[in-house]
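To illustrate this point, we now present one chain and its tokenised fold:
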Amino acid sequence: MTFDHNHTCERGFSEIRKKTDTLNRDIYMWQCLTCGHPNSNILPYNDPDIVKEAPIEPWDETLQQKWFDAFAASAVKQNKDENKIWWDNYNTYLASPEWRAKSLAVRARDPVCQGCRQNFSEQAHHVTYRNVGQEFLFELIALCSKCHDRLHDLKKAQNARYTRK
């Protein structure tokens, strides 16, 4: 099942279903019978047009879980797509004359590596990626290749701890 972010379920496949809320009360909502998507807010429990419908089927949790799984998978894919676009743009920027000028300015400002203070600086590194493309020079530090690689290795290890597989 693929998730459609604009899903409205106006196909006639929805039905009022009975569900139990966290306070153990019966509530009524429309549920799409195709994908499990909840199609409404909670309907008034004392509405005679709802309660007279007999029998009202129970909420299909399995179908709703399918909808949620499709929604989550879609969100992950969208995030990956946006991440790829961001990195493509970032790498294009790193190859630009604008980045080269900023990198040279940072390395001229700090000819010695700001990581080890022993080697000559070879690269400019973003302290933050918040303003990429419009960064201030104080958002960049000059590093030798060894410190730059070490910094990225530390960041990768830190991100791996917080990334679920």
Summary: Confidence is low (pLDDT under 50) at residues 1-7. Helices lie at 48-51, 61-94, 97-109, 145-162. The chain is about 40% helix and 15% strand.
